[in-house]
Specification:
Oligomer: heterodimer
Order of helices and strands of chain B: HHHHHHHH
Distance between the termini of chain B: 58 Å
Largest sheet of chain A: 5 strands, antiparallel
Number of strands of chain A: 5
Radius of gyration of chain B: 17 Å
Strand content of chain A: 5-15%
Helix content of chain A: 40-55%
Strand order of the largest sheet of chain A: 1-2-3-5-4
Number of helices of chain B: 8
Shape of chain A: elongated
Largest sheet of chain B: none
Number of strands of chain B: 0
Helix content of chain B: over 70%
Shape of chain B: globular
Structural class of chain B: mainly alpha
Radius of gyration of chain A: 27 Å
Chain lengths: 369, 169
C-alpha cells in the first residue's frame, strides 16, 4: 500500500479530507492508522504548517474598530454622500445611459421591453461541506477542527519573538450557512438598475440594424471613437436640461435608479469617458470603473472594467486611432487578450477566460468596424 | 434564506482586511478595499457571500497592484515595496519593529508562486478547500499539495530572510 502524499497529509491536518472523494478520505485515514512512517511524516508536516501560520500571523493586522455597517449599506443603496471614485464612475456610466437614451428617444425611438432571459438567475450549485476529520478516533493524535484551528492560530508563537496580533476569529455560524448555499456567481438580476438601463441603450446603439445606427452615424465619425459627442461630459446646465428626460425611461426600478443617480451627479468633473460609453460596455455586465489610462504613450485610451458573472473582472481598453496597441502593458495574471478593430483604433478585451469566451463577449458587445 | 449581512460583516470584515493587507501592504488601503468589496456585495446580494467577497477583494487588489505598477513605472520610482515601507518614517520603535516584520513576511510571500500564495492567503483567511479550488482554478485534489508547498516555501523564505537580517547587524 502506497504512503500518503504530503498534500493529503495537509488536507488531513486542515480537516479537509471530507471535501475529497469518500474512498480517498477513507484510504488516508486507514493508512495513517496503520503506518508509523506516515504518522511521523504527519508530525513533520504539522510543524511546517504551524510555522507557516506563525509567519503569516506576524503580518496580521489588528482590527480594533469596524467601520459603520449602516454607512456601507447606505453606500450600497447609493444614498450616502461618498467622496471618491466609485459613485462618480457609476454616475458617469449612468450619465452615458441618460445622454444616449435621451438622444435616441428624442429621435422618436422606443426602448425595447425588458428581456426576461437576460435577467434570469445563474444556475445554483449546491455544495455540502463535510465535517472535519477530528471526529475520527485515529491513533494519530488529536487533529484540530477548522474552527479550533483559527483559535490555535491566535496562540501560535510569532517568529523572532514578536508578539503576533490576534488571528482571525473563529468562524461564525453565518459563515457555515454561507458555505452551504451556492457558487459565487453574480446574477444579472442582482443589479437590474445598472444592467437594464446601460445595456438596453447599449444594445440599441450598437446594433447595426436598429434606428440607433443613425445615431452612430451622426454622433461619431470614421476614425474617431464612436459616440464621442454623446459622451462628452455635460455641463451642469446640460444636466438640468436632460434630467427631466429620465422620466421617459422605462419605469422599472433599475432604470429609475440610474436616472435618478445620473440626474444628481451629472456635474461630476470627469472627462475620462470621452471615448467610452455603450460601445465599451458589454450588455449584462455591470460597470465597475471607467477611466483613462495613465501611460503617456497611450494618451486618449479609455479603460472600462466590468464585473463578469463569475465575479472576475473584464477589462476593455479602447485605443484610439494612431496609437500602437502594442504599447499596452502585457495582460499578465493568466489573462487572455483579444484585439478587435474599433472606431479606427483598437478595442482590447482582457479577462481570466478563454479566447472563445472573450470572442463571445465581443459578440455581445457588438458594433465593431 | 437571505443572509444576515450585519453579522457577515462583523465576522468576515476583519479577515477580509487582513487578506487584503497581505496583498497591498497598506492598512488603510486594505480597509478601503474591504469596504468596497462589501458595498458591492450588498448591491449584488450573492448567495455565497464569503467566497464572493474574497473573489472580488482579490480582483480589487490585483487591479490596485496593476495601477500601482503603472504609476511607479511612469514616475520612475524604482524602490521596492519593502524599501518604501522602511523609508516612510515609523512613529515608534514598536511601529518600526512591526514594519520590519511585515517586510520580512512580504518578502517571504513574494518567494511563492502566485497561485500558491493566493491559496495560502485564502486558507489563512478561513476559506475551505472547495472555495480555494474554485477561486484559484486548482483541482480540488491539488489544494492540499499546493498548500503544503506554499507553507514549506514560506517558512523557508522567512527563515532565510531572518538569518540574513541577523548576519547584517
Amino acid at each position: 500500500m502506497s504512503h500518503v502524499d504530503e498534500g493529503m497529509l495537509h488536507a488531513y491536518l486542515d480537516g479537509a479530507l471530507d471535501d475529497l472523494p469518500a474512498a480517498e478520505a477513507e484510504r488516508v485515514r486507514r493508512h495513517l492508522a496503520e503506518c508509523g512512517v506516515c504518522r511521523g511524516r504527519l508530525q513533520e508536516e504539522r510543524a511546517v504548517r504551524d510555522e507557516a501560520a506563525a509567519v503569516l500571523g506576524a503580518a496580521s493586522l489588528e482590527i480594533s474598530e469596524l467601520p459603520s455597517f449602516e454607512e456601507l449599506r447606505a453606500r450600497a443603496r447609493g444614498t450616502a454622500d461618498v467622496p471618491g471614485f466609485r459613485l462618480q464612475k457609476l454616475a458617469w456610466a449612468a450619465s452615458v445611459v441618460l445622454a444616449l437614451g435621451t438622444g435616441w428617444l428624442l429621435r422618436g425611438g422606443v426602448l425595447p421591453a425588458p428581456d426576461d432571459e437576460a435577467v434570469a438567475s445563474a444556475p445554483a450549485v449546491t455544495e455540502a461541506r463535510g465535517g472535519a476529520d477530528e471526529a475520527d478516533a485515529t491513533p494519530v493524535g488529536a487533529v484540530s477542527t477548522r474552527e479550533q484551528e483559527h483559535s490555535e492560530r491566535s496562540s501560535l508563537p510569532s517568529p523572532a519573538g514578536v508578539a503576533a496580533t490576534p488571528a482571525p476569529e473563529a468562524a461564525a455560524p453565518a459563515d457555515a450557512a454561507a458555505d452551504a448555499t451556492e457558487v459565487p456567481a453574480r446574477t444579472a438580476a442582482a443589479d437590474p438598475g445598472i444592467r437594464t438601463a446601460t445595456d438596453k441603450v447599449a444594445d440599441v446603439v450598437a446594433g447595426d440594424t436598429s434606428p440607433a445606427a443613425e445615431l452612430r452615424t451622426t454622433a461619431g465619425q470614421r476614425g474617431a471613437p464612436v459616440l464621442v459627442q454623446g459622451l462628452t461630459p455635460p455641463s451642469p446646465d446640460a444636466s438640468e436640461a436632460v434630467a427631466p428626460r429620465a422620466s421617459l425611461l422605462p419605469s422599472r426600478e433599475g432604470a429609475g435608479f440610474v436616472a435618478s443617480r445620473a440626474a444628481s451627479d451629472l456635474s461630476a468633473p470627469d472627462d475620462a469617458l470621452e471615448a467610452g460609453g455603450s460601445s465599451l460596455s458589454v450588455p449584462g455586465l455591470s460597470v465597475v470603473s471607467v477611466g483613462r489610462l495613465e501611460e503617456i504613450e497611450l494618451q486618449g485610451a479609455v479603460r472600462v472594467v466590468q464585473l463578469m458573472e463569475n465575479g472576475d473582472t473584464l477589462e476593455l481598453v479602447h485605443i484610439p486611432a494612431g496609437v500602437d496597441p502594442a504599447l499596452l502593458p502585457a495582460a499578465g495574471d493568466g489573462r487572455s487578450q483579444l484585439l478587435s478593430p474599433r472606431a479606427g483604433g483598437w478595442l482590447v478585451l482582457r479577462a481570466r477566460a478563454s479566447t472563445d469566451a472573450l470572442s463571445e463577449l465581443l459578440r455581445r458587445l457588438g458594433g465593431g468596424d | 434564506m437571505s443572509a444576515d449581512w450585519a453579522e457577515l460583516y462583523r465576522t468576515i470584515f476583519p479577515d477580509l482586511v487582513r487578506f487584503l493587507h497581505r496583498k497591498v501592504w497598506d492598512p488603510d488601503r486594505a480597509r478601503d478595499l474591504a469596504q468596497e468589496a462589501f458595498v458591492r456585495a450588498l448591491e449584488h446580494q450573492p448567495l455565497k457571500p464569503k467566497a464572493w467577497l474574497f473573489q472580488v477583494a482579490s480582483n480589487l487588489a490585483r487591479d490596485e497592484a496593476r495601477t500601482v505598477v503603472r504609476r511607479k513605472r511612469h514616475l520612475a520610482l524604482l524602490k521596492s515595496e519593502v524599501e518604501s515601507l522602511q523609508a516612510s518614517a515609523p512613529d515608534s520603535a514598536e511601529e518600526l519593529t512591526r514594519r520590519e516584520q511585515w517586510g520580512r513576511v512580504q518578502e517571504a510571500l513574494g518567494a511563492l508562486g502566485e497561485r500558491d500564495r493566493e491559496a495560502l492567503l485564502l486558507w489563512d483567511a478561513g476559506l475551505g478547500y472547495p472555495d480555494i479550488a474554485r477561486q484559484t482554478g486548482l483541482a480540488l485534489a491539488s489544494v492540499g499539495t499546493t498548500l503544503a508547498r506554499a507553507r514549506r516555501r514560506l517558512a523557508e523564505a522567512y527563515r532565510e530572510k531572518e538569518e540574513s537580517d541577523v548576519a547584517r547587524r
